[in-house]
Amino acid sequence: MFSQVFVAIISYLSTVATAATVSSSPAQTILGIGGSGAWWPHDLYRFPEATRQNLSNLLFSQEGLGLSSYRWNVGAGGVGVSNPVRAPETFYIGAGTYNWSADPQGVYFLREASKRGVQDLTMFANSAPAPLTSGKTSCGSNFVSGSGNAYGTFLADVVEHFRNEGININFISPMNEPDSDFGPVPCGQEGMKVASTQRAEVVNSLWNSLNQKGLANSVGILADESSSLSLATNEYKDWLLQVVDKEICCSLGNADGSGRGWSGGYDPTIKNALMFSGLVFQSLVVAGESHYDFWTLVSNGIGCSPLNNPSCIANPNSNGWTDGVIYYDDEYATNRNYQLYITKHFWTYKHFGNFVKPGSQRRAITGSGANNNMLAVSTSSKYYVLAMNPTNSASTLSLTFPENVCAVASYRTSTSEDFARLNGATRSGSSWSLPLNAMSLTTFEFNRGAC
After folding, report:
1. pLDDT band at 240 (very low <50, low <70, confident <90, very high)
2. Which of these three, 302, 321, 356, is where a domain ends?
3. Each residue of 424-433: pLDDT tens digit?
């Protein structure tokens, strides 16, 4: 009898109850949740059509991640790049002359994203076309001062071409990671170094080209995509003075916020998935960003052979990379393994893709039980509360809303669950009780209005 009571007490003590309140005022309007199409389209385009369609649904449909943003890499031709996967073809032949049949791999998935209604389509460039760079290569070269008009015209022409096709690219990143040329030749990927004093020319020239086509109000420019914030903040004084004193830094570490730093290896487990979910929470809640894109969605960096060792796909290893949410066999061309492998990171990212939609408004959560691993978003008819518990102990959040709401359902990803649909929160007086299992991410759905 004593042992039963003791166990019950321990169980009770391990479930911590905390209280918080959802704000009545919006903190920010969400623009999108997405990811990058570099460089996996080169390989996945060679997969059977049924697999390509399945992948497109996994990424872009609400039954999958439900992404509202997609980044397409416009190629520079791959001149000097040793890895063909990272050397997308370029449309550029010469000034005003283009080969629109180039890069069928990247264009295929760009079209699939557009077909499925992805709202934000970003075209990003790692380098200008080789003929426009200092070394006439797609890597190991620099931006040439005075070539901004030619480069801006190229980018604007490409966007205009696809918008005329009905693919409404609405953002351009003209210099992705401009601090490195990724040289020397032969390089592992495309890259063009753009000195901080040259960057204003790139941005202004692109805007002028868009404006001449009547696109300046329809297509935005992502002016700064430096490799790291530490590099960017040292360079802003040279070209982007408006943001010099607007820095908010976030870092990557364990799911509970400890152990921040860089690491490699492949990890398909819930621990890694929650760590990256923490980064999304940091971006939206701490930094107040309205948009989040993950690099790179699909990866071949498993670090093991899933055909030779089927169990390896479910276990961490130090040989691979944690740079995707979906994986494929690096040896597919020889072993014909066209299987797609889903990690826990896919299921946790689905919470953000499915529920944090463009136009929804983030509401601050305050109180003793609030932390940076939870957020609430509202639409005209719904509230969604995403809450992560990265600890080994279950807890309960007592949440109060600024208006009447009615619980609908909850969705949980944990060690044993993949976006499992469960019962909704339960009412407790004027508040709602939200159970947060250990090592889990849960989304609670509410209708606005009384039950």
Report:
1. confident
2. 356
3. 999 999 999 9
The confidence band for 263, taking pLDDT boundaries of 50, 70 and 90, is low
- For residues 318 and 315, give the distance between their C-alpha atoms in angstroms, rounded to a whole number: 10
Of 247, 280, 304, the residue at which a domain comes to its end is 247
Range of the domain at 177: 68-247
Does the CA dihedral 333-124-108-350 come out positive or negative? Answer: positive
Retrieve residue 436's tokens: 């947060």
- The confidence band for 251, taking pLDDT boundaries of 50, 70 and 90, is low
d(CA 421, CA 355): 14
Determine, yes or no, domain membership for 121.
yes
Cβ burial, residue 413 (10 Å; 0-12/13-18/19+): buried
Beta-bridge mates of residue 19: 398
Residue the block writes with tokens 């819930």: 270
Same domain, 107 and 18: no
| pLDDT range class, residue 17, cuts 50, 70, 90 | confident
27-78 confidence digits (pLDDT tens): 999 999 999 999 999 999 999 999 999 999 999 999 999 999 999 999 999 9
pLDDT in the model for residue 13: 36
DSSP conformational letter for 213:
T
99/188 same-domain check: yes
Q: Is residue 382 domain-shared with residue 340, that is, in the same domain?
A: no
Q: Quick one: tokens of 331?
A: 């040896």
Whole-Å CA distances, 254 to 110, 391, 438: 33, 11, 15
d(CA 432, CA 22): 11
Instruction: Indicate if 390 and 400 belong to the same structural domain.
Output: yes
State the chain's maximal CA–CA distance in angstroms.
Answer: 86
Give the number of other Cβ atoms within 10 Å of residue 267's Cβ: 23
* Number of neighbours of residue 277 by Cβ within 10 angstroms: 24
- 422-431: long-range pairs with CB below 8 Å, 24+: 425/399, 428/398, 430/400, 431/19, 431/398, 431/399, 431/400
Note whether residue 42 is domain-resident. no
d(CA 160, CA 334): 39
The domain that holds 131 is classified in CATH as: 3.20.20.80
Which residue do the tokens 């416009």 mark? Answer: 74
Domain count, the chain: 3
DSSP letter string, 417-441: -SSEEE---EEETTEEEEEE-TTEE
Tell me whether residue 258 is exposed, middle or buried, using C-beta atoms within 10 angstroms of its C-beta: 0 to 12, 13 to 18, 19 or more.
exposed
Instruction: State whether 82 and 186 are in the same domain.
Output: yes
More confident residue, 362 or 237: 362
pLDDT digits 0-9 by tens, 129-153:
999 999 999 999 999 999 999 999 9
